[in-house]
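Example 3.2
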Amino acid sequence: MEQNALLKKKSMLHDPNRIYIFDTTLRDGEQVPGCQLSTVEKIEIGKALEKLGVDIIEAGFPISSPGDFQSVVELSKAVREPVICALTRANKGDIDSAAEALKFAKRPRIHTGIGSSDNHIKYKFNSTREAILERAIEAVKYAKSFVEDIEFYAEDAGRADNVFLAQMVEAVIAAGATVVNIPDTNGYCLPEQYGEKIRFLKENVKNIDHAIISVHCHNDLGLATANSIAGIQNGARQVECTINGIGERAGNTALEEIVMILKTHKSLHFTHQVNSKHLYELSGMVSRMMRMPVQPNKAIVGKNAFAHSSGIHQDGVLKHRETYEIINPEDVGIDQSEIILTARSGRHALNHHLERLGYTIERIDLDQVYDKFLTMADGKKEIRDDDILLLMGDKAESNYKDGLSIKSLQVSCGDQASPEATIKLFYKGSIHEATSGGNGPVDATIKAIEKIIGRSFNIKEFNIHAIHSGSDDVSKVDMLVINEGKSYKGYGFSTDIVRASANAYLDALNKFV
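Structure, written as tokens:
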């Protein structure tokens, strides 16, 4: 195993443009409150990460609990291609536990380290730079007695003095570290500062070419991805990240963002082995298993990342996708962009959905449908396929030129008041108004309509459906109306159930006439 790890290390060091993806979803990501995983769940995610093509999986912190120890053991057995890494502190007990947990790993790595900033040295360890440096060297040497591949983390390197940090990095590489991790543990650095720190190490650590520099950035100021990119632009060749950017506090660098930045900005000339087409699927898996929803506007994998609702944007994307999309959604495992129909959508977007659903209409018809669409969209946040199908099937208010149509409807009801409806209808070429009571708001509305037309019809069936869940939803009403041996089905829609019922009744009546 040690020989394999050594060969892998040498291949890393000889490829100057290769970026190695270190995934810590199962370690740093799982530290988020409420996101703990069972061993079975960790194995499932681990196999998905292997399929994705990550280079290193940080499987856990074995000394922290028996469950974490066992998870590292089982992941070492189940996942064979990536390096399996276990975290430790700079002490023998932690390292012993990690070495034992990794005994089945094909490519084991021990990740050990200690604080490097004066803040950590003074307040966390109550120690001195000299003593901390000695502990760092001892930890690396001890870990090296178990496995060849040793990663050393200089905790809080983002706030560490660069000269001391360089001294520490040089010493641990001399002790046997194959990777040196320069964490911005508190998400403090600006990209320029962090990039300069990596460049300082490249220029001032004499044995730096004997190890890979790794970046591990937190997102407290929303700069984790930017800092990681700055790091690799200045010499780092490993990026530590998590699926969906989960992790301590505000999270870690998002794996999907790093991968797609490198893929999109080809001028950077960096390569990696991740198959980006699995990103969306894996994002959903991690979100479900960790019970941590992905925010809709999350880059790359959020549900709005490839969705367009502005009419201007929709028109541009439909004409030429790259107008408003720099990433092909298929590259991250999404079938296609989504054109979201809202009150801000234009005719082009509506026609796109109508054609997709099988409707071929002339422009004059599109104008009529678009007016109906805007009426529906004003009462509902988002128009979906069922809404469009209903829209195309509803004829109550626009398709019967000389028929009945609603101009206004007012309904009052409550615990202390009898239901009453006042309706204005366009009927026989003019506006008619009537008011009626009833045993409910729908009954009162139907009776008011019947006052205007001077006759009543028998409603045989009456059904109300919510197309989708939500308080702003469109209700669909269908009813079977019978008169003198004839029957017609009427359909109506509205965010108001009473209005939908009136629309359905009028739709049926118009079919009679």
